[in-house]
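chain below, 325 aa
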Amino acid sequence: MVPAVVPEAVSAVGSAVGSAVGSGEGADRGRGVSGVSSPAALAALLDAHAYLAGEGLATACFLALKMGRPLFLEGEAGVGKTELAKTLAAVLGAPLIRLQCYEGLDAAQALYDWDFARQLLHLKAAEATGATGAAEAARLEGELYDRRFLIARPLLRALETRPAVLLVDEIDRADDEFEAFLLEVLSDFSISIPELGTVRAAEPPVVVVTSNRTRDVHDALKRRCLYHWLEHPPFEREVAILLRRLPACSEALAAQVAAAAGRLRSAGLVKPPGVAETLDWAGALLTLGARDHLDPGLAAATLGALLKYREDQQTVLANGLLRHA
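prediction:
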């Protein structure tokens, strides 16, 4: 196997933004947000895309954009971490590139892979033309590691896409080794492909890293990010979210659903409902004809949209928690 090093073919001119990540120096390194002058202005843009961010989240998001730093979001599942990345991509008019983390994820699965099937076809096509001899063999080997045979995985796509929003979802599910590898990528926004050379982001992607805190993420990764803990929304905001996302929902029904969800979150359940589950529940109620009143019978019948553990459902029904809805 003869590596064909053609860095000019794949490398982009790096910007200084990457070097600022982790150093903490420099402000106003924003990308695609030149018209956004404050957290409130960003919150308004998110609001226009049906994402209602509190002041703390809007400020963290605004600073991450302006300073060119990854945004690390931690919080219970279903509080809107992933949705924020999706909405941010819509606000910036950039594609969302998602890397879903899981146990066993390695660098190759996140970066790139060679398309062996296409490489094999290329070899067979060359053989069919009668290419023989040492010189021809060397040329063919070089061609096999051309950029056209490279399959870009999420991290490489994010480096090559300008602009882009990179969502590294549920980093707490990945192994320590992958977390250490990600640390390097987020520091330099460049990777080295032995056969091709270095790929450096011409414009580093906007990065959102999420964690459900199933394990502690290393401080080294957090140091390179701006951090925000995302809480369940207060009652008033959850009502507003329901009304924004489900236009058919009445204010009375939204208020009763939000109140019920808030009550269940303090009931010591195995998995308290997040905003995503509340939306699902309200959607299920509307599907079954609920309009202005949260009927206890319908609430019990649709509990599976809100609670995903049998023990939680039994606790709620046994203690009559829905009767107060």
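The longest helix spans residues 251-265. The CA atoms of residues 126 and 136 lie 9 Å apart.
thats it, cya
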